[in-house]
Structure formats: C-alpha cells, structure tokens
Write a structure and sequence with these properties.
The complex is a heterodimer.
Chain A (H helix, E strand, L loop, with lengths): L12 E12 L2 E8 L13 E6 L3 E6 L10 E6 L3 H7 L6 E8 L12 E7 L3 H13 L7 E7 L8 H7 L5 E7 L9 E2 L16 E6 L2 H14 L6 E4 L15 E2 L2 E2 H4 L2 E3 H8 L5
Parallel strand pairs in A: 7-8, 7-11, 8-9, 9-10, 11-12
Antiparallel strand pairs in A: 1-2, 1-6, 2-5, 3-4, 3-6, 12-15, 13-14
Chain B lengths: L3 H7 L8 H8 L2 E6 L4 E3 L7 E7 L1 E6 L7 E7 L3 E2 L13 E4 L3 E7 H10 L1 H26 L7
Helix pairs in contact in B: 1-2, 3-4
Classes of the chains: A alpha/beta, B alpha+beta.
C-alpha cells in the first residue's frame, strides 16, 4: 500500500502556501503547491507528509485533500504547539518544506464493491477526507458510504460546508455528533459510538476506516465488532511521534511496528492486542 | 393505521418479546406528541412514564447555578427516553426537551410497575432490556468524560 518517494526522503522540498483556511478556532487547512516542478507526488488517501516550518521544526501531518487534485496538497493542522502554530501562521506565498508522502494508505482497493464506513473523531476526519472524495468521485466502484463523525463541540466541527453537502450525496448516510452541545445546537449530542444505532449498516459487506484519538478508536472498533464487522474489515490510522518517517530512527515504534513505515493505516487485526496495552 | 400493539412489537427495544407481554404493555401505552421547544419532563418531577421515541429529537439537559444549561445527550427515533420510573423515588434526574416536534409512545410507569409486580416474568424481561440501555449509556458517559478531543 505504500508509495515510493521519488526524491531523497530526508530532503524537504520547497512548497508554496497557496491558501490558509480557518476551519475552527484552532485548526487550519494549508493548501501547498510545489515551488519547483520536480515533485508532482501523487498520494494515497491515508498517507502523511513531514511538514517543515523553517527555523521551528518538522511535523508529520496527514494529507487531507482530494487525491485527484493534481499537485496541490492540503494539510489540516491543529495549532497545539510551537511548530504547529508556526505552520498555521504561514502567509500565502511563504515557503514550507515537505517530505513525503509516506506510509500506508486506506484499503480502497479492498473496499471496491463494498459499503465504506468512515468513522472519524475530531481532527481524525482530516486523513479520512481523501477517502470520502475518492468514494464520491468513483461512486460506481463502491456501494453505500456511511460517514460517522464526532467532535468535541459544534465549534470544533471541521469542513462544515462539505459535511452539509455530503449528507445529500446519493447512497450516502452522514451522521454528526458532538460530545457537548449548547442550547443553540440542533444536532445530535453524544459520543461518536452513539451514532451507530442510527446508522444503516450491512456489516457483512462493509469495510470500516477509523481515525481519531486512540481511546476513541478503542471504543469504535469494539462497537464495529459488536455491529458484526469482522476484524479483517476494520482499519485504523495510528499516530506516534514520527521523526524520520522512513523507519530508521525508531521514534514511532509501536510494539513490533514503526508507524511511519508500517502504518499509519493498520489492519485492526494487526494492532488490536496493542490497543489495550498500558503505556504503549 | 399503526396500532399500539404493532408499534410496540416492531420497536427495537421490544425485539423478541412474546406477544403475551406486548398485550400487557399496550394497556399502559398511549400516543403523545410534543411541539419543538416543549419540555417533556423536568428534573425533580415525578417520573411516571417512559417514552419510545417515534420521530423527532429530544435533548437531555442539565443545569447548574450561574451556568447555561448544557445538553448531555440527545435521543432520536427508536430511542428510549427515561428509566427513572423504574427506581424509587421515581423522580427525573434531567430536563428533557423536544428539540424538534417529537412523536412518542408513552408507557405509564405506575401501570407498568403494578404489572411487573404481578408478573415477574414481564418485570424480568423489562429489566433486562433497560439494563442494556443503562449499560450502553454508562459506557458512553465514561467515554464522554474522557474528553478525548481536548488539546493535551
């Protein structure tokens, strides 16, 4: 599932910031294009890049854009530290270093001819958005698309316009919930697993893709199994402190795996014993 | 036209319940409707029924002094609203208000408690079903308490 990197994987390529879109009070989507013409890297939904805010630091960020959108790469970044703050503070025309794309993608080949269940929590919707684009652009290749998305509060919901539009796509069920809702919120309130009772699932013909905080994925994968999905049809995207992104440095070791090289997308069967291990 | 028997028999909460018990429940059931914004019950009020929501959306709210009320959970079509009718002192623990126009089947708690005392098999069937709901909501509440999307 991984894509070979055509240039030196340790050498950041210069990309130019084309646009910065504020998604929520602390989360922004950067649109980047290669400054030189040597790149043109295609990515698989689920892969990540290492983004370098020059002079500050480098971070692994999932690609959140449309895989069919040519050279333009989108990254949704939550500003929670120095390097992420530097990235989201970039101005149009400024330069960011990009290495990658790296890692494994979502199992879109395996999902052909099946229902695709996307379960996202918080910023976990970002690496799954390319899956949604892929399914919607190739509607005949897949059966139903079920999108279950949970966020902390209404103001933390990502991609609001698209969320609204996805609800009206053919053969698509889109359910959104927030953990805490004010009185002005008219939508669903409850954790993301509470959406399953409203989802019209056909477990025997479905592939599920899950991304969010690790605890959330534990609850969700348990629920998917309870709904009747086999472990072999559940995939999850993991996150650790990635540094080299090519399996050399060991910073992102997760049991016997390096998340940068063997993941970030893993078959649930492979990581299930690790998900419930303390301090891993 | 849908009969109360059919609504109860087809509801997922009563899946697999023998028709003999469904017949007992019908005697305690009635159709109700709430306008958007209406309070279905308020914290501290007597809990004399539970509801099978047929359509609409209901918010469970909790309020604290000097804070705006917050919605802790919403319930929609197919959900069960209320289990305080089961346990003394039979008082509601939350406010429930209809976020949208809501149709439901109300089951009278006093009527049900009497039937359950007379027929422990019915009581056991109901308790098993409510225990599942309580278990799922407890798990969801624990998950919610983790506040997993907060910045760390």
């Amino acid at each position: 599932m991984s894509t070979a990197v055509t240039t030196d994987p340790m050498l950041p390529q210069p990309y130019t910031v084309q646009e910065v879109v504020k998604e929520t009070p602390d989360t922004f989507t950067l649109s980047l294009e290669p400054s030189n013409t040597i790149n043109g890297d295609r990515f698989q939904p689920g892969q990540f890049s290492m983004l370098w805010a020059f002079g500050v630091g480098e971070l692994p960020i999932s690609i959140s854009g449309d895989p069919g959108q040519g050279d333009r790469l989108l990254y949704t970044v939550r500003s929670v530290g120095q390097a992420t703050h530097a990235l989201v503070s970039q101005k149009v025309g400024e330069s960011v270093g990009v290495r990658g794309p790296f890692g494994t993608g979502w199992p879109l080949e395996q999902a052909r001819g099946r229902d695709v269940i996307v379960v996202a929590g918080g910023i976990g919707l970002a690496p799954l958005r390319p899956v949604i684009y892929q399914v919607l652009h190739n509607r005949k290749m897949y059966r139903r698309l079920v999108i279950l998305y949970g966020a902390r509060s209404p103001r933390d919901l990502l991609y609001r316009k698209e969320l609204a539009a996805w609800a009206h796509q053919p053969d698509t069920q889109r359910l959104v919930t927030v953990d805490y809702g004010g009185l002005s919120w008219r939508g669903h309130v409850g954790v993301v697993t509470t959406l399953f009772k409203y989802a019209r699932l056909q477990p025997a013909r479905s592939v599920a893709m899950v991304c969010g905080p690790e605890i959330m994925m534990r609850f969700v994968t348990r629920e998917l199994e309870a709904q009747g999905l086999s472990r072999g049809n559940i995939y999850a995207s993991m996150e650790r402190n990635m540094k080299c992104a090519v399996g050399f440095c060991g910073h992102c070791q997760y049991g016997p795996h390096f998340i940068c090289r063997d993941g970030p997308v893993f078959p649930y069967e492979q990581i299930r014993p690790l998900l419930e291990k303390y301090e891993l | 036209m849908e009969t109360l028997e059919r609504i109860i028999a087809e509801h997922r909460f009563f899946a697999g319940l023998e028709s003999y018990y469904t017949d007992l429940l019908v005697g305690c059931a009635s159709n109700v409707r709430f306008e958007a914004g209406a309070y279905i019950f308020k914290e501290g009020g007597e809990a004399n029924e539970f509801y099978l929501i047929r359509s609409g959306r209901v918010a469970l709210e909790i309020s604290a002094p000097q804070r705006k009320p917050i919605i802790v959970e919403t319930l929609s079509e197919g959900d069960i609203l209320g289990w305080s009718w089961l346990l003394p002192p039979y008082h509601w623990k939350f406010h429930a208000h209809a976020v949208e126009g809501t149709r439901a089947l109300a089951l009278n708690g006093q009527c049900l408690r009497t039937k359950c005392e007379q027929n422990h098999d019915l009581g056991y069937e109901l308790l098993k079903r409510f225990a599942q709901i309580i278990d799922r909501r407890l798990e969801a509440t624990r998950f919610q308490l983790l506040d997993v999307y907060a910045a760390r």
